[in-house]
C-alpha cells in the first residue's frame, strides 16, 4: 500500500520509524479518521480543526501544509495509487519527533496519511450493546481529541468481545453515560435527543457535532447532559455516531429499543448531502 509521509508518497511495507518513536513509546500523538464520499457531508475541515486543537494541547507545531485542499488532493492521489473505489476511509496520524522520555525535547512532528476503502453503510444497526463494568472515561484537557494512547478503548473492546456484545458503552467515574469504545452516544426520549456532556470525558466527535448542528437547524432539541447509566434503560432508542456514520442499537443490556430513523430522518438527509 502507498501512503503519504511528511508530504511524500511512501510504500508502507518498508520500515517507517525507529524503536525510539514517541508514538510507539509513549502514545505521544494524535489521529483523525475521515470518511469521504460523493453522497455525504464533507467534514474534512472539522477534523482538521480538532487536530489543530489537539496539537495546541500537546504543545507541538501543526504542519502548515495540512490544509483542506491538501487533504482532498492526498485522498485522490492515494485512491489512484492504491486502486481504491467508492467511499474512502482516511487516517491522519501526527506524532512528536524523537527525544526525551516522558518529558519531550521537541515540538516538531511527523505525519502519515493512509487511505482504505470504506464499506460500512452510513446508517446501520447492531443487535446487542452492553455497558462496561470495568473501564471508565475521564475528562482532561486532551479528552476531546483522539490520541494514540487508546489502551482504555482497547481493553473495553476486549471486554465487549469476551461478553459477546456488538458494542460496549463506557461511563465516567460518577457512572454517568459517556461514549462507546469507538463512537459517541445518543439516545432519544419522545422527540428529544440526549448526548453525554464533554465533561464526562467523551471524545468531541466530529459526527457528534454535525448531528447536534443538524438537529438544531431543523428544530429537534438536543440536550448535552450528565446522566447515570440507568437513564438509558428508560429511553425509546439509542444510537452511536462516528466518522463512518450512525449505528442504532436494537438492544442494550437486554432491553429492546426502537429504530430512531423516523425521528432522525431529517438529520440523515442533511448529513447525506454532499
TrEMBL record:
GO biological process, one term: carboxylic acid biosynthetic process
Family per record: Belongs to the class-IV pyridoxal-phosphate-dependent aminotransferase family.
Domain of life per record: Bacteria
Protein name as annotated: branched-chain-amino-acid transaminase
The protein's Enzyme Commission number: 2.6.1.42
Membrane-spanning intervals of the chain: none
Record's catalysed reaction(s): L-isoleucine + 2-oxoglutarate = (S)-3-methyl-2-oxopentanoate + L-glutamate; L-valine + 2-oxoglutarate = 3-methyl-2-oxobutanoate + L-glutamate; L-leucine + 2-oxoglutarate = 4-methyl-2-oxopentanoate + L-glutamate
Metabolic or biological pathway, per its Swiss-Prot or TrEMBL entry: Amino-acid biosynthesis; L-isoleucine biosynthesis; L-isoleucine from 2-oxobutanoate: step 4/4; Amino-acid biosynthesis; L-leucine biosynthesis; L-leucine from 3-methyl-2-oxobutanoate: step 4/4; Amino-acid biosynthesis; L-valine biosynthesis; L-valine from pyruvate: step 4/4
UniProt GO molecular function: branched-chain-amino-acid transaminase activity
Pfam families noted in UniProt: Aminotran_4
Stored SUPFAM superfamilies: D-aminoacid aminotransferase-like PLP-dependent enzymes
InterPro entries recorded: Aminotrans_IV (IPR001544), Aminotransferase-like (IPR036038), BCAT-like_C (IPR043132), BCAT-like_N (IPR043131), Class-IV_PLP-Dep_Aminotrnsfr (IPR050571)
Signal sequence range: none
Amino acid at each position: 500500500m502507498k501512503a503519504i509521509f511528511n508530504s511524500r508518497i511512501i510504500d508502507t511495507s518498508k520500515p517507517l520509524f525507529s524503536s525510539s518513536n514517541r508514538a510507539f513509546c509513549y502514545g505521544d500523538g494524535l489521529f483523525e479518521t475521515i470518511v469521504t464520499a460523493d453522497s455525504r457531508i464533507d467534514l474534512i475541515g472539522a477534523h482538521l480543526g480538532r487536530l489543530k486543537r489537539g496539537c495546541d494541547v500537546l504543545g507541538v507545531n501543526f504542519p502548515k501544509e495540512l490544509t483542506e485542499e491538501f487533504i482532498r488532493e492526498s485522498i485522490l492521489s492515494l485512491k489512484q495509487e492504491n486502486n481504491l473505489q467508492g467511499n474512502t476511509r482516511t487516517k491522519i496520524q501526527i506524532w512528536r519527533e524523537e527525544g526525551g522520555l516522558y518529558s519531550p525535547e521537541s515540538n516538531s512532528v511527523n505525519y502519515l496519511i493512509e487511505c482504505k476503502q470504506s464499506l460500512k453503510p452510513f446508517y446501520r444497526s447492531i443487535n446487542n450493546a452492553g455497558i462496561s463494568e470495568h473501564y471508565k472515561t475521564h475528562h482532561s484537557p486532551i479528552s476531546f481529541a483522539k490520541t494514540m494512547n487508546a489502551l482504555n478503548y482497547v481493553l473495553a473492546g476486549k471486554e465487549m468481545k469476551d461478553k459477546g456484545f456488538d458494542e460496549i458503552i463506557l461511563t465516567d467515574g460518577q457512572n454517568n453515560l459517556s461514549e462507546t469504545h469507538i463512537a459517541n452516544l445518543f439516545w432519544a426520549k419522545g422527540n428529544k435527543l440526549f448526548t453525554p456532556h464533554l465533561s464526562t470525558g467523551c471524545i468531541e466527535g466530529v459526527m457528534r457535532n454535525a448531528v447536534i448542528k443538524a438537529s438544531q437547524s431543523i428544530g429537534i432539541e438536543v440536550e448535552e447532559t450528565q446522566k447515570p447509566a440507568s437513564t438509558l434503560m428508560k429511553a425509546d432508542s439509542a444510537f452511536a455516531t462516528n466518522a463512518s456514520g450512525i449505528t442504532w442499537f436494537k438492544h442494550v443490556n437486554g432491553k429492546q429499543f426502537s429504530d430512531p430513523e423516523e425521528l432522525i430522518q431529517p438529520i440523515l438527509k442533511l448529513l447525506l448531502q454532499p
